[in-house]
Amino acid sequence: MRNKIEAALARLRATLQMDGGDVKLLDISPDGVVRIGLTGSCAGCPMSRMLLKLGIAACLKNLPEVTKVVTVDERVPV
After folding, report:
1. Which runs of E-coded beta strand occur in 1-78?
2. Which terminus of the chain has a smaller tally of CB atoms within 10 A, N or C?
3. Range in 40-44, 56-60, 72-76 with the lowest mean pLDDT
4. How many angstroms separate the CA atoms of 23 and 6, rounded?
5. Rounded Cα distance, 63 and 18, in Å
6. Rg of the chain's alpha carbons, rounded to an integer?
7. Is 2 helix (H, G, I), strand (E, B) or coil?
8. What is the dihedral sign for C-alpha 48, 21, 1, 61?
9. How much is the mean pLDDT over the chain?
10. Which residues, including other chains, have CB under 8 Å from residue 13's CB and lie 6 or more apart?
11. What pLDDT does 65 receive?
């Protein structure tokens, strides 16, 4: 499962890096909860909630093993 999630994040990473940000995979629980962290200009950005919900979480939730995506900063499911 880790490889699938990393591959999905890699597809998004180029776009994030163009704006000086990045995303990193921190943990995957046995029940499919994925913990990610935003870094660089994405960390604390006012648009990060939309990015998480419409971009990252939507992409990862296409994987059947993923049940929830949680950011480390806010620990809020998206």
Report:
1. 21-28, 33-40, 68-71
2. N
3. 72-76
4. 10
5. 25
6. 11
7. helix
8. positive
9. 85
10. 22, 23
11. 93
User: What is the domain partition of the chain in residue ranges?
Assistant: 2-71
Residue 22 forms beta bridges with which residues? 39
Whether the pLDDT of residue 76 is over 60: the answer is: no
Confidence check: pLDDT of 23 > 70? yes
Q: What is the CATH number of domain 2-71?
A: 3.30.300.130
Number of H helices, E strands in the chain: 3, 3
**pTM of the full predicted structure?**
0.81
pLDDT for 15 equals 84
The DSSP bridge pattern shows strands 21-28 and 33-40 to be antiparallel
Task: Give 30's contacts (C-beta < 8 A, 6+ positions apart).
Answer: none
Q: What's the burial of 52, exposed, middle or buried (CB within 10 Å: 0-12/13-18/19+)?
A: buried
C-alpha span between 71 and 58 (Å, rounded): 14
Output DSSP code: residue 32. Answer: S
